[in-house]
Write a structure and sequence with these properties.
- The complex is a heterodimer of chains A (about 375) and B (about 300).
- Chain A is of the alpha/beta class.
- Chain A is built from 14 helices and 5 strands.
- Chain B has about 300 residues and is of the alpha/beta class.
- Chain B has helices at about 40-45, 70-75, 90-100, 110-120, 135-145, 165-180, 215-220, 230-240, 285-290, and strands at about 1-10, 15-25, 30-35, 55-60, 65, 75-80, 150-155, 180-185, 200-205, 205-210, 225-230, 245-250, 255-260, 275-280.
- The chains are: A alpha/beta (about 375), B alpha/beta (about 300).
């Protein structure tokens, strides 16, 4: 036991003496949360907007006023001819255009049916949807007010047309995906490097020639990263709640238990890599390319699993991050109880046990 | 203390050790002498239970290196050829760590490492990576000794160490021997061989000869001459072609020569080089070279 304690102590010394690495370990998750939270924000402001208003009546002016005072739209031009729209889009002068029909007010009152066309630049699909949704909301808000004022069922038809990228897709719940990735990065990569470094510097030779048990070497390597990962988990959760306003709707305890199982699994993956490779560079490549890439692509973080071809769907089942991310989405975002993540929980536990067994069996008591 | 019987080891198709058998007595300072690639490190790793031999048996302190490796690892001290301590830990942290993993404390065996460790103790808060080569060796030796091993394995401990530290290091080994620890040391330096009680000369995974250094020298089977000339290189080439010359090697400013028949190759034959012959006692290196030429089967 004293051996293990001394070993863990030594590992902490290694980590804390390497200031650059510890900053990276803590900094990467924080930076990723901040970037995704703010730079990759789905909120869009100051959309450069052009208006074509052939009616120029009381209703269109009221709608345009509402648009102008909202912080989302910035009206840059009133067009005199609808043919100018294409040109303005292509020159990049505008990102959004609102085209009213003829005799808008008249149609609205007498036919109860006026039309307005919304054109959004969907080369950035996110911004396109958001702009169109905002504008549609403003218009229907106006219609609501009219209805309640006059008690007449008016209807304004909004036709939304997405330009340049008609099929829209963007991922929103990035936090679970990010968690799935960060723990692989920290646990698998850092543990494998830490163990392989001993091989590379020759200290493993001395350790193996000593009476210290191989399981102690393994446990001591994992312990610091387990604690650091838990700390990072807490940081991520705090940041997502207080900075990104992603609420934790489910059970916090189970979210922790579930995450810690995943962390142990990632540590075991690192251990497995370290039993296979002999240099730090190889360990980095194996965990970076070998784990990160399939985890990113096949875990459902970037591309939805439902739309994958059958073959990749099957492959994705062996990616632990798939189960973790889906579980976190359920517990954290949807607020599901533990009974709903039972399959994920069991699969991850089974995977972790399997990897630990294999890697411990693989861990060499000798040099070759 | 160490019994090695018919050990063979291959790395793929490369033969690293071929039928090695040696016996090291308790309390002996035993040297493995040979150039790089002779198989010294492989033999060390087999004896420290880090590698398994393909065939053959070996015991260290009565423990089989294959079957009893767990127990064996309590009793041996091993210092690999490369500096293998934690460079980011301080001198004291390294020693403390190795004391703990061997289930002991610095205080318990301080007397054993004191002559060595006291020399670096004033730097005990310095990181091991910032030590000089000589000081690193002392720390590594302290760490290998802290659990009071019965057998100490030192793989090329003086490679890359300055001459003064090397001399000092061998002084320490003598002291360990005096303390009753069996020491197996390897070195590529022939001049260190005479400091051992007995040596094994190794080449290409084979042992050429095992004996006390002075006995190996005494058994040199022929007369050895030292030759000085005005053009050693030309003379070397000339002598290599001369039928009466058995071996000839450059040795600093001299050539060391043995003859098949000395009467047919007098200095007169090489008068153009102003060659002067002088009979000398061979040193270990002469023996080694002579042995590697396979003209002398012991």
């Amino acid at each position: 036991m004293k051996q293990l304690y001394a070993f863990v102590q030594k590992e902490f010394l290694h980590i804390f003496r390497d200031v650059r690495t510890i900053l990276l370990i803590i900094g990467i998750p924080v930076a990723q949360i901040l970037i995704i939270g703010f730079a990759v924000s789905t909120e869009v402001k100051n959309i450069k907007t052009a208006i074509y208003d052939p009616s120029n009546d009381v209703s269109t002016r009221q709608i345009i006023d509402k648009l102008a005072v909202s912080e989302y739209f910035n009206i840059v031009e009133y067009l005199s001819n609808p043919d100018q729209i294409e040109d303005r889009f292509q020159r990049g002068d505008i990102q959004f255009a609102m085209v009213f029909g003829d005799r808008f007010h008249e149609n609205l009152y007498h036919n109860g049916n006026a039309s307005v066309q919304l054109l959004a630049d969907a080369t950035d699909p996110n911004q396109g949807t958001v702009a169109a949704n905002y504008a549609a909301a403003i218009i229907s808000d106006y219609a609501q007010t009219m209805m309640s004022d006059l008690n007449i069922p008016f209807q304004i038809m909004t036709q939304v047309q997405m330009l340049y990228n008609p099929s829209m897709r963007s991922s929103y719940d990035f936090v679970p995906g990010l968690m799935g990735l960060i723990f692989i990065l920290i646990c698998a990569m850092m543990t494998s490097i830490a163990i392989v470094r001993e091989k590379e510097t020759g200290t493993m030779e001395v350790l193996l020639a000593s009476p210290v048990k191989p399981i102690y070497i393994v446990l001591a390597k994992m312990a610091p990263y387990f604690l650091i990962s838990w700390f990072i988990l807490i940081v991520i959760l705090l940041m997502s709640v207080f900075l990104l306003h992603v609420p934790i709707t489910g059970n916090l305890l189970w979210l922790n238990v579930f995450s810690l199982i995943y962390i142990v699994l990632s540590l075991a993956l690192g251990l497995l890599i370290s039993t296979i490779v002999n240099t730090q560079v190889a360990a980095m490549l194996a965990s970076g390319m070998g784990l990160m890439m399939p985890f990113m692509i096949l875990s459902g973080m970037m591309f939805p699993i439902e739309s994958m071809p059958t073959f990749l769907k099957i492959v994705s089942c062996i990616i632990p991050a798939r189960w973790y991310i889906s579980g976190v989405r359920k517990v954290m975002i949807e607020g599901a109880g533990v009974e709903h993540i039972l399959p994920e929980l069991l699969i991850l536990t089974a995977m972790a046990s399997f990897i630990i067994l294999v890697s411990l069996k693989n861990f060499k008591k000798r040099l070759e | 203390m160490i019994h090695v019987q018919h050990i063979n080891k291959n790395y793929g198709r490369i033969c690293a050790l071929k039928d090695i058998s040696i016996d090291v007595q308790a309390g002996e300072l035993f040297g493995l002498i040979g150039p790089d690639g002779a198989g010294k490190t492989t033999l060390f790793r087999i004896l420290t239970s880090l590698l398994l031999a393909d065939s053959g048996e070996a015991t260290v302190d009565g423990l089989n290196v294959r079957k009893d490796f767990k127990e064996l690892r309590n009793h041996i001290g091993y210092m690999p050829g490369r500096f293998s301590l934690y460079q980011d830990l301080t001198v004291e942290e390294n020693l403390k760590f190795f004391a703990t993993i061997f289930n002991t404390t610095i205080a318990e065996n301080y007397h054993l490492v004191a002559p060595i460790y006291s020399q670096i103790e004033k730097f005990k808060t310095r990181r091991a990576g910032k030590l000089s080569g000589g000081m690193k060796q002392k720390l590594a030796l302290s760490c290998a000794l802290i659990h009071k091993p019965t057998v100490l394995f030192l793989d090329e401990p003086t490679t890359g160490v300055d001459p003064v530290s090397r001399k000092e290091f061998w002084g320490m080994l003598k002291a360990l021997k005096a303390a009753g620890i069996t020491v197996l040391v390897s070195t590529p330096y022939m001049d260190e061989a005479i400091l051992c009680d007995r040596i094994a000369l190794m080449q290409h995974g084979q042992i050429l000869s095992v004996d006390a250094p002075d006995k190996i020298v005494a058994q040199f089977p022929t007369k050895l001459y030292r030759v000085r000339s005005n053009n050693n290189y030309a003379l070397l080439n000339r002598m290599r072609q001369h039928p009466a010359v058995e071996t000839v090697f450059m040795f600093g400013e001299y050539l060391h020569v043995t003859f098949v028949d000395q009467s047919k190759a007098t200095s007169a034959c090489f008068s153009e080089f102003e060659a002067q012959f002088e009979e000398i006692t061979p040193n270990i290196e002469d023996c080694f070279i002579y042995l590697t030429q396979q003209k002398w089967i012991m």
